[in-house]
Amino acid sequence: MIRAVKGTRDILPPDSAAWNHLESVARRVFRSYRYGEIRTPILEETQLFARGVGQETDIVTKEMYTFDDRDGTSLTLRPEATASVIRAYLEHRLDQRPGVQKLYYLGPMFRRERPQKGRYRQFYQIGAEAIGSESPAVDAEVIEMVIDLLRQAGLQGFTLLLNSVGCPVCRPRYIQELRRELDKVSEQMCLDCQRRALTNPLRVLDCKVEADQPIIDRLPSILDHLCETCRTHFALVRRYLEERDIAYELRPRLVRGLDYYMRTTFEVVHGALGAQNSVLGGGRYDGLAESLGSRIPAPGIGFSIGEDRLVMALEGAWSDPLDVFIAPLGEAAAGQAARLARPLRERGFSVETGSEARLKRALELANKLGARFALIVGDDEIASERYTLKNMQSGEQAALPLDAIIERLKT
RNA sequence: GUGGGUGUAGCUCAGCUGGUAGAGCGCUGGAUUGUGGUUCCAGUGGCCGAGGGUUCGAACCCCUCCACCCACCCCA
Q1: How far apart are CA A278 and CA A271, in angstroms?
Q2: Which residues of chain A have pLDDT under 70?
Q3: How much is the pLDDT for A91?
Q4: Nearest nucleotide, C1' to the C-alpha of A378?
Q5: Per-residue pLDDT tens digits for A48-94
Q6: In chain A, N or C terminus with fewer CB closer than 10 Å?
Q7: How high is the ipTM of this complex?
Q8: pLDDT score recorded for residue A80
Q9: CA at A75, C1' at B51: how many angstroms apart?
């Protein structure tokens, strides 16, 4: 048998209802902050990600689905969306439009990693970007919005982690300092850290090995090495968040894996997600446009939610119950059942019409389908134009005209 | 890419020291007339992940693959 390819999966009903619910909450929240949807291609030129995400990142070096098009152009299935959004912003000169450009997106991303809990090769992200301003007030609103979204989606027990990773002025100085300190202590650390100390010292801060923690705690903190501009920016972001009553944990050790992040970075974590406890990640990326070769600046901040993980973290399956199961008795009744179904559907009720020969079978099926009501349409009903509406939970039933049925369904 | 775990019915699993498979749930039908859920009865369903080996005989032991899951790396 042909199966779904590794790391991809089918999302079937009733599970898909939870996804739809989450997506409609997200759209509603985005709209309330006046973000508009952007739909970018899933396929982009490889260069976009190589330069945007960062030549040295894991994503670019080993996780991209890349292939040559027939004309030889190298194409890649998008591993994330921010680079595409910035590309579109520049391509369509959105910088010429008034105000901050506020865009949201949702859809599949692709990374060729070993799948595990909360990690797929095709996974879904819901994200947003606010482009065209360096103001810390924008940072605060973006974070406020995503927290709002999580709340409205019904997520409980999550933690917002906040940090600043500096800018091209202060980060290199910090990394230099970090390297100096690591030279002294790295041999006491785990093998991974010894490797990281040489290749990517910032990653050492992320190490989860228990024995390394005291050592890491004594390493210099980026927050003590921010330049003046970054320091005031971060102070303001924090103040604005506090003014909005948004609780966060300061995590000077929070490092993001994509090269383009600068200044504000944040992440939301949730227990019960396994090793992949991050529900969302985001940050500011003021230099991204330039690294794509643009002369037009596009300073911005954004986030992206791991939809697969958020769905996993949301407890209780979202169900979409069947309102009415119509059980026609006999061939004459089938036509009448269809005539009754239409006005009910027009009013937004979900309706299924059965075709069971015996009422017993029809009710059995209505029960299995989880119908709230069954509507029995037989000869008596057709003659009197009063149809038997049965409440499947209580078992109560009554013969009612159509308008009364509609009223009853609303309960 | 590296480790660990697991592969038996649609699903969740049992199968003792090797004698060619079971349960629960589900699904289908029955307990007669236009009343479901509970109950009872019957039925459906499996090249025991694949290939090879040992053996009179393998779901079970050995080898090799493959798939899925979890973890590392890294990230959503």
Answers
A1: 9
A2: 257, 316-317
A3: 97
A4: B34
A5: 999 999 888 889 988 999 999 999 999 999 999 999 999 999 999 99
A6: N
A7: 0.89
A8: 96
A9: 39
The alpha carbon of residue A47 and the mean position of all alpha carbons in its chain are separated, in whole angstroms, by 25
Q: Are the CB atoms for A37 and A105 separated by under 8 Å?
A: yes
- Residue A130: closest CA among A236, A283, A261, A245: A283
Nucleotides of strand B within 7 Å of the protein's CB atoms: 1-3, 26-27, 29-30, 33-37, 67-76
The residue behind tokens 């959004």 is A85
Query: A94 in helix, strand or coil?
Result: helix
The amino acid occupying position A143 is I
Domains by residue range for chain A, with CATH: 15-170+226-313 (3.30.930.10), 324-409 (3.40.50.800)
**Residue A361 CA distance to nucleotide B29 C1' (Å):** 11
Per-residue model confidence (pLDDT) at position A292 = 94
The distance (Å) linking the CA of A236 with the C1' of B36 is: 63
pLDDT at A353: 94
Q: How many angstroms is C1' of B73 away from CA of A210?
A: 17
